[in-house]
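Hey,
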Amino acid sequence: MRFRSERHRDRPEVNLIAFIDVLLVILIFLMVSTTFSRFSALQVSLPTAGERQSALPASVAVAVDADGRFAVDNRRIEARDPAALALALKDAAGTNPDCVVEIRADAMASHQSVVNVMEAARLAGLPKLVFATQAAPASR
């Protein structure tokens, strides 16, 4: 009796057609379940500067120029950190806890400079803030 020393085995193969079918079903599911709505986490109404409002009863004006330098009530402050600016705000506000901080930032001032003024107002215990705007020119 003669036995075969080599057995002929079928090689395993991956069924690509079933794999492609599964991928197409997943792709269709993802396309149908995805919503294409616009991301709108915050609804913000920006103020307009149409009319001039009355002057604030007790306010401290903080000017921020385009280079990030500060001036409190027309006195230039050399320090740029919020702690030093908070000391200047406390001095300018005096003992009035209802004093309003009026931020007059240049249009080209960095966002960080304005945030530093807001942080300094918080450190100084002056929670009321307003932003000064320039009135739009009257249309003819």
